Structures are given as structure tokens and as C-alpha cells.
Amino acid sequence: WFILQYMSGFGNEHVSEDPRCPGALPEGQNNPQVCPYGLYAEQLSGSAFTCPRPTNKRSWLYRILPSVCHKPFKPLEEGHLTHDWDEIEPDPNQVTMLEGALLCQKGPTAGQGTEKVAIITLLQLLCLHFVSTVPQQGKLLITTEFGKMLVEPNEICVIQQGMRFSVEVFGETRGYILEVYGAHFELPDLGPIGANGLANPRDFLVPVAWYEDRQVPGGYTVISKYQGKLFAAQQDHSPYNVVAWHGNYTPYKYHLEKFMVINAVAFDHADPSIFTVLTAKTTRAGVALADFVIFPPRWGVANNTFRPPYYHRNCMSEFMGLIKGHYEAKEEGFQPGGGSLHSMMTPHGPDADCFEKASKAKLEPERVADGTMAFMFESSLSLAVTKWGLQTSNRLDKNYYKCWEPLKSHFKPKYN
Asked: Residue 327 annotated as binding?
């Protein structure tokens, strides 16, 4: 496999240049009259110029040709992508997909005869702003303007708005993709936890600069998403021609095994928010546009407590996915690569078998979720299944609701 270098830190000011061109970064300024090596200076802004310094996101790229050099964009056939909320009726019912489709296709893209990921959107979210990729099977070699990242199952990566990237896959590949519009992902506040815990900033990895100076007539297709629709433009040079860059607006990846788990050690459950890796906040304090939450291996020690997730309804929409193993609250029927959607205020919780088993279990310290990794995309907005997703009946479990039907009353009143 590939030996790639990374820089560590979340939201840091990073500086990188391809070692083939030492001194490519201008000294002491961003856009000199003439850049080293005759490069073009280009700023990529991820926030308004006037955002406060702590939230201002931008990077300077020094490239062989500016990204403006392409033919006009033309509409691209959308396939399974949809932005039309009216093509399906709202449905508050619980939805589960037994197993996801294997997503890979062959063919020349960006002038190379490699395999590329075919992204099929099951959930209808908002417009593309930030893409969080969660591979479940197969390895992804992601090339960006900032450099390359190798992303494997149990890792995630985030590609931010405006960044050009392509994905090479090797054999059968599938995973989950979250698109968020309106806010940057950030690390959740820790509050009384203190300075350390959950996802630590140093464990996030950013690619180092890497460029290719290639020209292939008509060989590169740049696909852009605009107002929910896809457009394509042609260019004859590689979009990955950035020789050096600096800034704090970057792609990054993170290994989920690095997560420092916090858990209850006396009784009852702590809220699942303690498992939040990344959050995209709304303007309302404590309410997320999107959270990325994981349920990693951990110890369960709570006394006099029903230890699996409890039954609940809440004001968030929850899409659950499984990277490996068996989900602790539904061991049968929910396979790696599958998913479930529980819309806001729709009740859900452990299936009947899980409830009966956990209610009678001897409460000893135990390992929970060993060999597994489940996650959740959670949002304060409504989510819907696409028309394509509803029509793939061979993967949708139309009997999902039946997993709760065997639940029986244990009510024993002390009066007649």
C-alpha cells in the first residue's frame, strides 16, 4: 500500500510544500507580485472574510495553474441524486436497510484508468457543503488539492466546501456519506469533562502537499454541485497542481480507535452525546445541524441499570450505520453496510430479544461492543429516504417494525 505523510492537529494553521520544490511558499506574505517557481497564488475561503478570527477558515494555495482554467460547466445527469422533496411523501416510520450496495465502477476519470467510487445517495439531505466519508468496506485513496489521504474502514475523512478531490477504490467498496450545509464541523465542547477527552485534536491528520504537473487534452472532468444539481466542466490539466499551501481550511481524516470514551460508572445512562466525535452547530446553543457520533468498544459497569440504549423519542433525526460487528441493541438483521433512519419524535430502541436478555443479565463489569463499530449521523433537521432508496426493495427491510412486536407487558399491579 501507499506510504503517505500527514500533519496532526484539528483546525491548526498548517504549512506544507512538496519537497520536490523547496521554497515554494512565499516568505512573509500571501500573494507576492511573482510567486516562487512562477506559481499562481489562490485563496480558498471556507468562511466570510469578516468572520471572527477563531471561526475564520481559509487557505492559500500555490499552484501551477489557477482553478479558474476550465471549460464552462454543463448540467450532468444526476442519477440517484435528488433535491426534489416533493417527489416523495413524508414518512415518519422507522426505516432500515439490511445491507448497502457495493459501490464501485471502472472507467477513466481525470485522465487515469483507475477505479473510482460511484457515490449513491440513500438519504436526501441538504446541499453539499462538507462531506464526511465513512468507509465500511475497502480502502479509499483520496486525492485532494492539499495532498493524498489513504482512508480505511474505522477511519473517517472530511472534505470541505469547494475542495476538489477524487477517490480511487480497490475492488469492492462501500461506505456512508454525510453532506452538511451551513456550518463547519468542529470538536464538541467538553464542559465539566475538562481539557481532555472524546476526540483529541492531535489525532486528526491533514495531508501534506503533493502536486502533479500533467496535461491531458480533454482528460479531466470537474464535477460541481450547485443548488442541489450536478454540473461538469472539462479541463486539460490536473486539478492537483498545488505545489505548496498554508492555512487552516483543510481536508482531514481521523481513526475512530483514537476516541477517548467517557461512560457512566455508577448507575443509569449518560446521554449519547458523550460519544460525539464532530459537531456542526446551529445558531441555537446546543442544537446541532449535524453530529457524528460513534458507539465504540468500552466497559459497562453501571449498577441496577438496563445497559443497552433505552427506548426514546427525541427532537433529532437519527441515521444509524454499522462499520463492523453487530450493533448492541439489534444483533440480528442489522448488518455492516446497512443503516436505519429514525425520524424526529419517532420512537425506537432495543428489539425484543435484546430487551429480554438485558433485563435478566447478571450485572457484572463487561466489555460492550467489542469487535464492533456503530455510528450515527444525527440532525435537528428532517431527513428523508430518496425515491431510489425506497425502490431498492431487496435491501430495505419492510418488516423492521416487527422486531418490537414480541415485546410483552411485564406490568404486575399490587392490587386487584
From this structure: yes
Q: Which three cell numbers stand for residue 208?
A: 501534506
> How confident is the model over 363-400, as pLDDT tens digits?
999 999 999 999 999 999 888 787 777 776 567 788 88
Active site residues: 269
Q: How many CB atoms lie within 10 A of CB 153?
A: 19
Distance CA(41)–CA(356), nearest Å, equals: 63
Residue 288: strand pairing partners:
281
What residues does 385 pair with on adjacent strands? Answer: 123
* Per-residue pLDDT, 172: 85
168 belongs to an annotated ligand binding site: no
Query: Which helix (DSSP H) or strand (DSSP E) does residue 388 occupy?
Result: helix 387-391
Grid cell 442544537 in the structure block, residue: 287
Cα 299 to Cα 309: distance, rounded to the nearest angstrom: 14
Could you list the beta-strand ranges (E) of 18-154: 40-45, 58-63, 74-75, 95-97, 105-106, 115-116, 123-124, 130-137, 140-144, 147-151
| 3 state DSSP class of 330 | strand
Contact yes or no for 164/239 (Cβ under 8 A): yes
Do the annotations mark residue 312 as ligand-binding?
yes
- 3-class DSSP string for 202-252: HHCEEECCCCCCCEEEEEEEEEEEECCEEEEEEEEECCCCEEEEEECCCCE
By the 8 A CB rule, do 247 and 92 touch?
no
Instruction: Please report, as a single letter, which amino acid is at residue 193.
Output: I
The C-alpha cell 447478571 sits at 362
Identify the sign of the CA torsion 71, 74, 76, 82: positive
What does DSSP say about strands 252-255 and 298-300: parallel, antiparallel, or unpaired? unpaired
Q: What residues contact residue 141 under an 8 Å CB cut-off, 6+ apart?
A: 2, 148, 149, 150, 151, 167, 168, 169, 170
Residue 186: which of 46, 291, 50, 258 has the closest Cα? 291
Please indicate whether residue 97 or residue 1 has the higher confidence score (pLDDT): 97
Count Cα atoms within 13 angstroms, Cβ side, for 122: 28
* Alpha carbons within 13 A on the beta-carbon side of 252: 24
Residue that is written with C-alpha cell 472507467 in the block:
107
Cα–Cα dist 329/335, whole Å: 12
Q: Say if residue 105's pLDDT is above 60.
A: no
Structural domains of the chain in order of their starting residue, each with its CATH number: 258-398 (2.60.120.10)
Dump pLDDT digits (tens) for 298-347.
Answer: 999 999 999 998 999 999 999 999 999 988 767 666 788 888 889 899 99
DSSP element (H, E) containing 352: helix 352-360
